[in-house]
């Protein structure tokens, strides 16, 4: 279960490990991705965004290394 549920048509939930900078995003289709080296301020921005899906696409998806874990 994600640490934070988000209101989004594409994203379902977010979890963040500040000690490692790992941001885990669960998508509505069930896919789960880990993004590495993400600052806490970016996670905060995602959680506060009017459109978390757009924030993910514009600020996270192409700026951090990631892997699909599920």
Q: How many H/I helical runs?
A: 2
N- to C-terminal separation? 13 Å
* Secondary structural class: alpha+beta
Strands side by side in the biggest sheet: 1-2-3-4-5
Mean pLDDT: 96
Q: Gyration radius, to the nearest Å? A: 11 Å
Number of strands: 5
* Strand residues, percent: 25-35%
Can you give the helix content as a percent range? Answer: 25-40%
The global form is: globular
- Low-pLDDT windows of residues: none
Largest sheet: 5 strands, antiparallel
Helix/strand order, N-terminal first:
EEEEHHE
Word description of this protein:
- The protein has about 70 residues and is of the alpha+beta class.
- The protein is about 25% helix and about 30% strand.
- It contains 2 helices and 5 strands, in the order ββββααβ.
- Helix 1 runs antiparallel to helix 2.
- It is globular and about 30 Å long.
- The mean pLDDT is about 95.
List the helices and strands and how they pair.
Blueprint: E1 4-5, E2 11-17, E3 22-27, E4 32-35, H1 40-48, H2 52-60, E5 66-68
Antiparallel strand pairs: 1-2, 2-3, 3-4, 4-5
What's the gist of this structure?
The protein starts with a strand and ends with a strand. Helices cover 26% and strands 31% of the residues.
Structural descriptors:
70 residues, alpha+beta, 5-stranded antiparallel sheet, 26% helix, 31% strand
């Amino acid at each position: 279960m994600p640490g934070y549920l988000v209101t989004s048509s594409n994203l379902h939930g977010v979890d963040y490990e500040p000690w490692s900078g790992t941001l885990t995003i669960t998508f509505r289709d069930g896919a789960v991705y880990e993004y590495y080296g993400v600052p806490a301020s970016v996670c905060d921005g995602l959680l506060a965004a009017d459109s978390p899906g757009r924030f993910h696409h514009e600020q996270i998806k192409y700026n951090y290394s990631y892997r699909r874990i599920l």
